[in-house]
TrEMBL record:
<dbReference type="InterPro" id="IPR050994">
    <property type="entry name" value="At_inactive_RLKs"/>
</dbReference>
<feature type="signal peptide">
    <location>
        <begin position="1"/>
        <end position="22"/>
    </location>
</feature>
<keyword id="KW-0433">Leucine-rich repeat</keyword>
<keyword id="KW-0325">Glycoprotein</keyword>
<dbReference type="InterPro" id="IPR032675">
    <property type="entry name" value="LRR_dom_sf"/>
</dbReference>
<keyword id="KW-0677">Repeat</keyword>
<comment type="similarity">
    <text>Belongs to the RLP family.</text>
</comment>
<dbReference type="InterPro" id="IPR001611">
    <property type="entry name" value="Leu-rich_rpt"/>
</dbReference>
<dbReference type="InterPro" id="IPR013210">
    <property type="entry name" value="LRR_N_plant-typ"/>
</dbReference>
<keyword id="KW-0472">Membrane</keyword>
<dbReference type="InterPro" id="IPR003591">
    <property type="entry name" value="Leu-rich_rpt_typical-subtyp"/>
</dbReference>
<feature type="domain" description="Leucine-rich repeat-containing N-terminal plant-type">
    <location>
        <begin position="26"/>
        <end position="67"/>
    </location>
</feature>
<dbReference type="Pfam" id="PF00560">
    <property type="entry name" value="LRR_1"/>
</dbReference>
<keyword id="KW-0732">Signal</keyword>
<keyword id="KW-0812">Transmembrane</keyword>
<dbReference type="GO" id="GO:0016020">
    <property type="term" value="C:membrane"/>
</dbReference>
<protein>
    <recommendedName>
        <fullName>Leucine-rich repeat-containing N-terminal plant-type domain-containing protein</fullName>
    </recommendedName>
</protein>
């Protein structure tokens, strides 16, 4: 047992020694210093020294995580959020080629995401929510093959959702709500085998659910589907019940019409169903009232026949930081 402990201590000491005596890659030093200059001293007051990974007695810069690769240190994570960064997206970020996590959320970044974002091939988490970013979502994001979490919500993006997002084989969470996106939701997103959460609420999207799930086996892992507050139309197709992992279906404030298919009541894990403020007609199948997991079904603002009642007490689904823990 003692020998194992000694070996562990030696390994830890060697790791710290290597990190302390390795040189930071000049490319990353140059990129972070360019970012530092562009952000202004008030934001990066804790960024002391010339080396973002630490130099001598100076610690690494706040929000910067480094790791050792061979004889060099590289920047693998950059988290500078909620510090009121003002100005365009810092293009020098795209020179940090070993980044796995980029989190600049809750700032005041403006302008477009540069197409050079596609250079960050190792990126797993891209969090730019709660900024003032504009223009279209660059299709080059589709080149980030390792991306698992994409947060672009609460900005001012316009144009269509790029179908290139369907080229992200490991994507699990896609947040695009509260923008100015138009057009149809690409049906190609349904081919994402790992996608669990899709939120495109509060945009200007059109089209139908039938178009969205037109591929066989669409959205095999999807749990949460947020389509609320758009201009979507048509009915709810019975094929939606093929998405057997669905737990939340949020269709409020659209232009949906027709009856609610009986098959939807047999989605096994369905827990929250929001149908309010559409143009649905007919009756709610009795099976919904017998569903073992359905906690809330909101039906206000439709043209259902008398006797249709909600299930549970409606609660506004508010976005909080806990929704974004990764």
């Amino acid at each position: 047992m003692a020998s194992r402990c000694e070996l562990l201590l030696i390994c830890i000491f060697s790791l710290f020694f290597a990190l302390a005596h390795s040189k930071t890659l000049k490319r990353d030093v140059k990129a972070l210093n360019e970012i530092k200059a562009s952000l202004g001293w008030r934001v990066v007051y804790s960024w002391v020294g010339d080396d973002p990974c630490g130099d001598g007695d100076l610690p690494p810069w706040s929000g910067v995580t480094c790791s050792t690769q061979g004889d060099y240190r590289v920047v693998t994570e950059l988290e500078v959020y909620a510090v009121s960064i003002v100005g365009p997206f810092p293009i020098a970020v795209t020179n940090l080629l070993d980044l796995t996590r980029l989190d600049l959320h809750n700032n005041k970044l403006t302008g477009p995401i540069p197409p050079q974002i596609g250079r960050l091939k190792r990126l797993k988490v891209l969090n730019l929510r709660w900024n003032k970013l504009q223009d279209v979502i660059p299709p080059e994001i589709g080149e980030l093959k390792r991306l698992t979490h994409l947060y672009l919500s609460f900005n001012s993006f316009k144009g269509e959702i790029p179908k290139e997002l369907a080229l992200l084989p490991e994507l699990r969470y896609l947040y695009l709500q509260e923008n100015r996106l138009i057009g149809r939701i690409p049906a190609e997103l349904g081919t994402l085998q790992s996608l669990r959460h899709l939120d495109v609420g509060n945009n200007h999207l059109v089209g139908t659910i039938r178009e969205l799930i037109r591929f066989d086996g669409s959205f095999p892992s999807l749990r949460n589907l947020y389509l609320n507050n758009n201009y979507l139309s048509g009915g709810i197709p019975a094929q939606l019940s093929n998405l057997t992992n669905l737990e939340i279906v949020y269709l409020s404030y659209n232009k949906f019409i027709g009856n609610i298919p009986f098959a939807i009541a047999h989605i096994p894990k369905l827990t929250y169903l929001y149908l309010d403020h559409n143009q649905f007609t007919g009756r709610i199948p009795d099976a919904f009232y017998k569903h073992p997991f359905l906690k809330e079904m909101y039906v206000e603002g439709n043209m259902f026949k008398t006797g249709v009642n909600p299930i549970g007490t409606h609660k506004v689904l508010e976005v909080s930081d806990s929704d974004f823990v990764v």
